[in-house]
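Appendix B. Raw example, untouched.
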Amino acid sequence: MTDVGFEELLGASDYLSIHVPLTAETRHLFSYQAFQKMKQTAFVINTSRGGVIDSAALLRALDEGLIAARG
């Protein structure tokens, strides 16, 4: 198995399923800048706490077509 960095993971993923606890380090881990690095066809599935994703950034990314969908 090969380790990849966060930015490489964002840029390479078609589906990104999030499974992290909400901590000071993970709060808004998925920011507008993170969504900008993702494929326009990417799907984001968040099974973590809501604060891991910046909700305003997610809505903006969806409105601007930066990502395909969220679940």
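End of appendix B.
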